[in-house]
Design a protein that fits this description.
Elements: H1 3-20, H2 39-47, H3 67-78, H4 99-107, H5 127-137, H6 156-166, H7 186-197, E1 215-219, E2 223-227, E3 236-241, E4 245-252, E5 255-260, E6 263-268, E7 272-274, E8 281-286, E9 296-297, E10 300-301, H8 302-319, E11 323-326, H9 336-345, E12 350-357, E13 366-370, H10 377-397, E14 401-406, H11 410-413, E15 418-426, H12 430-436, H13 439-460
Parallel strand pairs: 8-11, 8-12, 12-15, 13-14
Antiparallel strand pairs: 1-4, 1-7, 2-3, 4-5, 5-6, 9-10, 13-15
């Protein structure tokens, strides 16, 4: 419901409330008792003939709104039947002025009663109850990173209050609380209505006007601070992580204004990369497994290490929107030809086999292999994929760059796919192994491989 339709619905909503409370016809100039702090919003509603004083000419801003009145408001706004009738609630009889709206709203799933089965029509509405009703009535959908100290994110109420605040209709108190159990008054309700009708009255805690997404980017850092303004000295409003997709709305020099999930703010563009425009399917092959432990040294077994790194790589790629096929996900051994068959059978277009090296104690660093007997299109693509992965890998791991090499390995030779095999360090070297024992460097290896894959996809596009 938008534009004039929404405005009309809110007018009906308020008018119904006032009629049910016995309001009289009083001109804007004669209404007294309007709180000065909110006179602009309330006088706006009076000027629009939405609010009228009581017969005594007073606004009565401290009067409370009941659950029956709320049902009438919502019912009229949604065009539900208000004809008096029997209801499913034992405490709402057919003769009650709101009975038709209460039952109609119940049937539409808009309102519910209490666990005991009653509705309590004369009970005053709380800020929590009004949040549920207004969000449903105005069909609010947008969320943001607005939070309140007295409403945990795990609660059902959080989503409704967040939407209400995101729309700029409600705000918290200076203490950072929302005070969901506080009874709502005519003044407070009037503010909600004014904010719903006129964006001039919206509160700053709500979401900004919709902006056009100019491009999609992917986070390349292990985590990235999101700030309320461009500049590294400004307030941090959230964090995003490797592989997270962000929508970019505007650019201010090297700072981008972005959103990711419910987080919105500024990030430095140095930690972003283009998101591939297509979804690709890639096979990740953790080397060895089961009866074949692979290399070992300094307390690390290759088959266990590369499975861990491969799973982390899959997570990064999937977060970035890629499809991933794993040749193994546990400690078992697919044959070399079986690994290739799994990738091809699942329609992967790229194949990355992950390994760790072993040699003399002095050998160290990372290296990545492709296979080429000449330089076909597939072989050239494999070379480029190896280059992109290796360039990321040695920098993320802070290891020696042993380079990109042509290697005669079955899994990258006997396949129709673009294929590479990467060695993420030497288990027989104390410095390399010391890094590979830590989750930090295993995450770094996985991040490097995933980002190298996405570098390759961006190059191909």
């Amino acid at each position: 419901m938008k534009g004039k339709g929404l405005r009309y619905s809110i007018v009906v909503l308020v008018a119904v409330m006032l009629l049910s409370m016995g309001a009289g016809s009083v001109s804007a100039d004669t209404v007294t008792g309007v709180p000065g702090k909110y006179s602009k919003e309330i006088n706006y509603l009076i000027g629009e003939n939405i609010i009228k004083g009581y017969p005594d000419g007073d606004f009565h801003g401290d009067d409370k709104v009941t659950r029956a009145q709320a049902a009438v408001m919502v019912g009229r706004m949604l065009g539900l039947s208000g004809e008096k009738r029997s209801t499913d609630f034992p405490d709402v009889n057919k003769g009650l002025y709101a009975s038709g709206y209460i039952q109609s709203a119940k049937e539409k799933g808009i309102i519910t009663g209490f666990p005991e089965g009653d509705y309590r029509p004369n009970k005053s509405m709380t800020r929590a109850e009004m949040a549920y009703l207004i969000v449903k009535a105005l069909r609010l959908e947008a969320n943001s990173d607005v939070t309140f100290t007295d409403i945990p994110k795990s609660s059902k109420l959080y989503d409704y209050v967040n939407k209400l605040s995101t729309a700029g209709i409600s705000e918290g108190f200076p203490s950072g609380e929302y005070k969901p159990d506080r009874i709502i008054s005519r003044t407070e309700f009037s503010l909600f209505v004014a904010r719903g009708m006129n964006k001039e009255f919206k509160v700053s805690s709500g979401a900004e006007e919709p902006m056009e997404v100019i491009e999609k980017q992917i986070v390349t850092a292990d985590f990235l601070n999101v700030r309320n303004k461009a500049g590294s000295n400004n307030q941090i409003v959230g964090k995003i992580y490797t592989g997270d997709t962000v929508s970019v709305y505007k650019k201010e020099g090297s700072w981008y204004y972005i959103s990711s999930g419910n987080i919105r703010g500024y990030v430095h563009s140095a930690y972003l990369m283009d998101k591939p425009s297509k979804t690709h399917k890639i096979a990740i092959d953790p080397g060895h497994g089961e009866r074949d432990p692979g290399a070992s040294g300094n307390g690390i077994v290759e088959k266990e290490l590369v499975l861990d790194v491969s799973k982390k790589t899959r997570k990064f790629l999937e977060n970035a929107g890629m499809d991933v096929v794993m040749t193994r996900q546990s400690d078992w051994y697919p044959s070399l030809s079986g690994r290739v068959a799994i990738a091809e059978r699942n329609n992967a277009t790229e194949f990355v086999s992950i390994h760790a090296n072993a040699a003399s104690e002095g050998a160290n660093g990372v290296e990545t292999f492709y296979y080429a007997s000449g330089m076909t299109g597939r072989e050239f693509n494999s070379y480029k994929l190896a280059k992109f992965i290796n360039e990321r890998l040695y920098k993320e791991m802070d290891m020696t760059d042993r380079g990109v090499k042509n290697g005669n390995f079955h899994v990258i030779r006997e396949t129709s796919l673009t294929a590479v095999l990467t060695e993420i360090g030497f288990l027989t070297n104390k410095e390399d192994a010391g890094k590979l024992k830590t989750q930090h460097y295993r995450e770094a290896a996985a991040r490097a491989i995933a980002l190298g894959v996405m570098d390759y996809y961006n190059w191909k596009e």
